[in-house]
Amino acid sequence: MQQVRVGLIGTGYIGRCHAIAYAQAPVVFPLKGQLVREMLAEVTPELAARQAESLGFNRSTGDWRELVADPAIDVVDICAPNFLHKEMALAAIAHGKHVYSEKPLALSTRDAAEMVDAARRAGVKTLVGFNYMKNPATQLARQIIARGEIGEVVHFYGTHNEDYMANPATPLDWHCRKDSAGLGALGDLGAHIINMAHYLVGSRIASVSGDMQTIIGERPDPREPSRLLPVENEDQAHALLRFESGVMGQIETSRIACGRKMGLGYVITGTKGCISYTQERMAELKLYRHDDDQGRQGFKTLLVGPEHPDYAAFCISAGHGFGFNDQKTVEIRDLVDGIAAGSPLWPDFEEGWRVSRVLDAIALSAERRQWIHVEEIN
Amino acid sequence: MQQVRVGLIGTGYIGRCHAIAYAQAPVVFPLKGQLVREMLAEVTPELAARQAESLGFNRSTGDWRELVADPAIDVVDICAPNFLHKEMALAAIAHGKHVYSEKPLALSTRDAAEMVDAARRAGVKTLVGFNYMKNPATQLARQIIARGEIGEVVHFYGTHNEDYMANPATPLDWHCRKDSAGLGALGDLGAHIINMAHYLVGSRIASVSGDMQTIIGERPDPREPSRLLPVENEDQAHALLRFESGVMGQIETSRIACGRKMGLGYVITGTKGCISYTQERMAELKLYRHDDDQGRQGFKTLLVGPEHPDYAAFCISAGHGFGFNDQKTVEIRDLVDGIAAGSPLWPDFEEGWRVSRVLDAIALSAERRQWIHVEEIN
Amino acid sequence: MQQVRVGLIGTGYIGRCHAIAYAQAPVVFPLKGQLVREMLAEVTPELAARQAESLGFNRSTGDWRELVADPAIDVVDICAPNFLHKEMALAAIAHGKHVYSEKPLALSTRDAAEMVDAARRAGVKTLVGFNYMKNPATQLARQIIARGEIGEVVHFYGTHNEDYMANPATPLDWHCRKDSAGLGALGDLGAHIINMAHYLVGSRIASVSGDMQTIIGERPDPREPSRLLPVENEDQAHALLRFESGVMGQIETSRIACGRKMGLGYVITGTKGCISYTQERMAELKLYRHDDDQGRQGFKTLLVGPEHPDYAAFCISAGHGFGFNDQKTVEIRDLVDGIAAGSPLWPDFEEGWRVSRVLDAIALSAERRQWIHVEEIN
Amino acid sequence: MQQVRVGLIGTGYIGRCHAIAYAQAPVVFPLKGQLVREMLAEVTPELAARQAESLGFNRSTGDWRELVADPAIDVVDICAPNFLHKEMALAAIAHGKHVYSEKPLALSTRDAAEMVDAARRAGVKTLVGFNYMKNPATQLARQIIARGEIGEVVHFYGTHNEDYMANPATPLDWHCRKDSAGLGALGDLGAHIINMAHYLVGSRIASVSGDMQTIIGERPDPREPSRLLPVENEDQAHALLRFESGVMGQIETSRIACGRKMGLGYVITGTKGCISYTQERMAELKLYRHDDDQGRQGFKTLLVGPEHPDYAAFCISAGHGFGFNDQKTVEIRDLVDGIAAGSPLWPDFEEGWRVSRVLDAIALSAERRQWIHVEEIN
Fold first, then answer.
1. I need a labelling partner for D75 at 20 to 30 A (CA). Which of B128, B204, C117, D360 fits?
2. C20 in any annotated domain
3. Does the pLDDT of residue B208 top 90, yes or no?
4. Locate the GFO/IDH/MocA-like oxidoreductase domain: which residues (chains A, B, C, D) (predicted)?
């Protein structure tokens, strides 16, 4: 069986989640390739060695450039801060590696486009970590839509709200700076809901009318809390959308939405039914069918189970639950199988670039106070 | 005690609800005036007589012009189809009557403005039937916001979606024609959520970017079902809002939103908390406070009770429920008390006109594909 | 049309609710008789006169004995404290009046039996105010069961928990004394859930194994708060049940169940489905059908609407809500129609007596620590 | 670092879950010992080899006796069918191995007692797989109770209902036979809720009054579906409980409860608050505090997060979810840490035996129709 040897860069928040999923994936799924946790890069050799030990990687390095150049690596997994994604991905591609990058793909659409081109020219496979679409409940939603169970989609409403920056006393961090994060809530959270919209509606977003605000304009300097530093990007944004299919949509994103801990959600209305979902109850999906008997119509709460995509590999009993890292495990199954079998991966860098275009279009629309065609963004 | 003698025009859907509330109000509340169900008008004398008998009115007439001119009437209650509101209200005002009209106030902002002017010049009181804001749960929401319990409002999201026209086989009716209804979902349902936005946010909507669609373009002719007639107004609409206070908002309305039976709802985010509500669970309000203890944060489900506005008059035990017509009963208490005590009524015709302006601004924005300042609409 | 002239005794909590429903009923329903609010009795002539004025009754009296003897009264409605039910009902029956009594019917099964006998001998109609079973959602539940939509019932779980006595500082009142209330939580709340069990399961309770406790043994004397008085009956109780049909059941009741404001609820499991309900969301019913398609099974939330029993008279749109007093309005419709049409009323005194037997059986079982056959209670 | 070398017997449903958790645990947690997936036993050498390969175990065997005798095994993990638990555990103990067994510990209380004695005499550590109590939400519930946040517990209500045998056409399997399963729903599901009651209430169950039924008396022979075989144990059971502390409790369990996919749940009422939970929403807990401000009382939905026990190791953001196998991962952390550090494990075999006593007491009580003291069961 072909080996798929992974080099992981970065072991912070999401890097650890990747590591948990790497450990779990080969037991959960009958993978098409032999997944090898080959090498791990961190900012110092010591930290790298310690993390390799605890996360189960064979080797480690304090220099990510060494990792991307290592001949025993097949795929480079980028979990480093956003502003490094581009440089790392291009370097990995230059060495002929497949690349698996966390979202957002890059700080700008232009950068993303460069990455797409490089990957295409090199013929390597790419995958972006939009893990929420790998959740069985959301895969089920897609399946229900694709099978026509709610008729033709007529409206999409999506949110990705969280409250991690809701407290004005929370110090400024990289999320709030243009040079390290690019966009604010749009880039960090909105990216997920745009990808979700593409996936679920099955059509690309064609044009947008957006608006956005920075609510907390200054935050304490983390090194000297009595000093306030300016927040450089938006705390909240929302937009009207039109998909290429003509479907109307609406999205909303915020990092200061008090009360939302994992407020990704969607309501998708069709001509014959409706789907409603919130990631805070990630193992259930609400489904309404307008052709149910009179007096017996209503939203039905479906608990995910073995009849639904990718659930049975974790547990064969319905309603027993599904966890955050389990989504990453599905994503990694896709990664390994795609590389081993030579089949396409999705969401790939191109999708990452498309998402970036929509986000930039929303920001531009908010600035210009007018509708923007996504294809105008380059 | 001063009498408040009501003349009711129209006893269809909402007219019957008014009648139920008129019967209930004097027992529920210690009214400041003596409510008298004096006269009722319907399209024929026979129907009027029958309805007066069953709804408890003293007299009846087949001619609404007789009713508005009757000297024993203090307030004219207009529950006739929308396209008649203006004519009836102006006639009632001409006779010096106070006017209580169902929403939408008129078919156009221009008509609404005329009604506002006439009422102002005549010095009569006016009230528009935006009954949902009279519900204790929503009054509580307003109270929570006004007291600063969720900090400063930073975002408003509101919907009023229903599915009464979701079935394409449902014949065309007056809702779908411009001459009888004016706008579609916006006028019939959206009006409520705009009024709600004004009430809850405590600031007027200043500008909008809207979009709308007619999904079911043709419907059966009710008199000859094999023939299809064109639907003349929108099935669904949504918009971005900016309030005068600078707050960002978003609304959505549809009459074909499969699954929504009474899908009026709102999520109001503040700097210190959040409120979430759906009219389908009209006796509960969800409240989140960001300053709750770490690990003990979460949305709390408040069941309305005697501590909340206007609940105790119906029942002195919390959580025992509140009904649709009970909202109208509160509205009628406001009407009778305002007239008897000579105090202001709200939402009055001016608010009806303001709501109309916002709706027209959304429609115009959808057409022009640009933001519209509400004050441009006249 | 035949008149049904009501004499109401007592205008406290529930008496006011009756009055609201009397006002509403003739407008909501096309009653079979002409409902007349004829006379009202309170503890003093002054209070009676004031209440008659505000509640819309023609005449009043400070002596309930005068009311029950009045020739212009057809039905006596007893909303006085529990310990007076028997005396008033027997007096009313002696004058040949129909009797509509609030629950619990009497302080003991023996007293209830006497009332049943008296009514039967006099040939008068009786009705007990178990209003929760008149709610459209619960009528729908009964309909679903009776039609076999969930197969054969195999388990009943019911609660009626509230927290009105949860605070130990709440002074002792009549609820806590044997001479005024009889049983504690069982009599005040448990009565409803026993009636509900009979109604929904469609079979009588045959035997019980019960347990109960007084958690707050002493409470402040309302006249001298520093003095503590003993609580004489149970704060909470629960029981296993066997119905005559063999079905297993379980009930629970408490007046100190922190968090439950109107915690009447039930889960009824059948061989092909399940129904779940809580009165705190009194306008919705959850329904599960095991024969739904694989992967599309789940509890469906039905919002009550015009297709369901007794909803359309209040509002013709689904999901628009239903209130506490609306249940009483349905009950009063039953009362008036039954008397006017000479048809049977239910739940009648016999059902009140049956409920009392079950409650006494639970209390006896708790004392003896053994199963008790309900028919042993007399 | 000390090694903890595991020998896993059985890789069916729950064995696979263990394997997933073994893979995940060392990455998720900083374990106190080095977890080694040493050996795996299945019914044939071929199957064992295949499973060892896919589940990441070093060695395999077709003979579990070989595994329990292997000198390189520190702890034997028994995931074989229930009727084998005793024999395997005694053999493992005889070889001085620690034992980690799935529930129920044994087919009878007598057998469980024998296992407890053997383990105690051998001085080995034991753990029973009551994984639901390892869930952060339930650990949080325990913490809330232990800290007195809901006052003194006054009532426990618990269920573990599922519907895996609800269809009468489902063939008879080992669950339905006394020789392979012992009790029915009580043994398979009820065991969890009894353990949960002990854990959460913090007091042991002292006496019970139970009832039970076999609803589907015959099922198809799996080898010859046209032939029906008798079901030998109960489909559903419920019981009243008294804890040693005097607290009243109630439990319910069923394997034919249509609609319940993972219907483990509890409502725990205290003198100052209430906790409500269902495993179908395993990442949230509802909490009510009676001392909240008037008009601001209500059940609060807490989403598990990093402030709560054992969540942060999986993800550092609140509300991001928690999965079924994650509970097992916490359990395995307890196992490895306990063995490596020489500290006590819980729930141990003694707790397994205590649970068994309660279950047998319920069954005996149902038969004798009387209350049974748990200590009478041996």
1. D360
2. yes
3. yes
4. 139-275
Is residue A175 domain-shared with residue A312, that is, in the same domain?
yes
Set of chain D residues whose Cβ sits within 8 Å of the Cβ of C276: 259
C164 interface with B at CB cutoff 8 Å: yes
Taking a contact as any Cβ pair under 8 Å apart, which residues of chain B between 42 and 101 contact chain C?
54-56
If you average pLDDT over residues C24-46, what whole number do you get?
A: 98
Chain A residues touching residue D19 (CB < 8 angstroms): 27
Phi-psi region for residue A24, left (φ > 0), alpha (ψ -120 to 50) or beta?
Answer: alpha
Predicted pLDDT of residue B350? 98
**Count of structural domains within chain B:** 2
Q: What residues make up the domain containing D86?
A: 3-131
Do C253 and C199 reside in the same domain of the chain? yes
Closest by alpha carbon to A239, among A213, A219, A275, A258? A213
| CATH number reported for the structural domain that contains residue C361 in this entry | 3.30.360.10
- Asked whether residue D170 falls in the same domain as residue D229, the answer is yes
B295 to D303: CB separation less than 8 angstroms, yes or no: no
Query: C67 near C9, Cβ under 8 Å?
Result: yes
Å from A266 to nearest chain C CA?
A: 19
pLDDT-based confidence at C1, cuts 50/70/90?
A: confident
Smallest CA–CA distance from D149 into chain B, residue: B296
Alpha carbon distance A318, C326 (integer Å): 40
Please report, for the domain that includes residue D71, its CATH number.
3.40.50.720
Query: Cis omega (within 30 of 0) on the bond before B104?
Result: yes
Q: Is the ipTM of this complex over 0.95?
A: yes
Please indicate, yes or no, whether residues B299 and B150 belong to a single structural domain of this protein: yes
Among D81, D111, D131, the domain boundary falls at: D131
Are B123 and B141 part of one and the same domain? no
**C16 contacts in chain B (CB < 8 Å):** 27
pLDDT in tens, B239-297: 999 999 999 999 999 999 999 999 999 999 999 999 999 999 999 999 999 999 999 99
Token readout for A218 is: 């200054």
Work out the number of other CB atoms within 10 angstroms of the CB of residue B278.
19
Residues B93 and B176 in one domain: no
A257 and A191 co-located in one domain: yes
Report the C-alpha gap between B16 and B10 in whole angstroms.
8
A42 pLDDT exceeds 90?
yes
Contact A358, A48 (CB under 8 A): no
Distance from CA of B80 to the nearest CA of C (A): 17
A358-377 core/surface letters (b: 16 or more CB in 10 A; e: else): bbbbbbebbeeeebbebeeb
